[in-house]
Amino acid sequence: MFTAKAPSRQAMVFAPGPGRLVRRPDRLAVEEPLEVRLSSPRGTSTLGITMRTPGNDMELVAGLLLAEGVIDGADDLASIAYCVGGAGRGGAADRDPNQYNVVTARLRRPPRRAGRERQTVTSSACGACGTASIDALRAVGHPVIGPGPRVAVDWLCALPGLLRREQLCFDETGTVHAAGLAEPGGELLVVREDVGRHNAVDKVVGWALCERRLPLGDAVLVVSGRVSFEIVQKAVRAGIGVVVAVSGATSLAVALAAELGVTLVGFVRDERCTVYSGPERLAVG
Questions:
Q1: Residue 99 lies in a domain
Q2: Is residue 10 in some structural domain?
Q3: Of 126, 157, 169, 210, which residue is the catalytic one?
Q4: Does residue 145 lie within any of the structural domains?
Q5: Residue 77 falls within a domain, yes or no?
Q6: Which of 138, 206, 261, 271 is 20 to 30 Å apart from 98, CA to CA?
Q7: What is the number of structural domains in the chain?
Q8: pLDDT, tens digit, for every residue of 165-192?
Q9: Average pLDDT over residues 202-224
Q10: What is the CATH number of the domain that holds 180?
Q11: Which residues make Cβ contacts (< 8 Å) with residue 157, sequence separation at least 6?
């Protein structure tokens, strides 16, 4: 199990008490900007700025570059490093995020695509906001989603509970999302938390890319919130054929999942679930 606790900070807040507001300490999830720069044989450029929870930033950038179509795999990526100190994945920079909010990804080849055109800072909850068009998302390209393994519904329904037990920052703050990868019938391989649902997915996909596990044809992606179009798109770019969510899915997410052969399951809780697409991968009883 690869679980990394997202950072939080103490703050003083007020809560109702007997006849007055009482001051008490609380924990806040950290949210800070991360500027992503690209360096390739074609030159240097800025991909954009995203709001994220610091920590596992190299995985976040790797997953983002894959999702954006800038790279197609680990062989396209020479290195990712902070512009201050140059600490790598899991290094000291992850423990001192205030000084490390600019990252440069060095590519061995020119970018496969220039990445989506973002005119403004992307918020941690923004998702597909600020992209040039939905058609640009479809144009990224993806591995063929194969039939994949059969997934037992009772095991699938247990995934949110497994994910919840690993949400260490959520226990402190109640304000972060989580994503995890699992092999059918097994334990979670990796869990990441972030203030952004999409960032959490990028982090687990980035972990898999850095570990050279792509494509993830035999993996299941589980997320703590709802599933949007972009989360399905990120899963497909990583070759994932099964996406499980604690909450529901949007109409566009369901349409894309059905079009590309992804099994999409939502409202997974208390041994119940809603199967939006791809029921042929699920085994009941």
A1: no
A2: no
A3: 126
A4: no
A5: no
A6: 206
A7: 1
A8: 998 888 889 889 999 999 988 999 999 9
A9: 95
A10: 3.40.140.10
A11: 268, 269, 270, 271, 272, 273
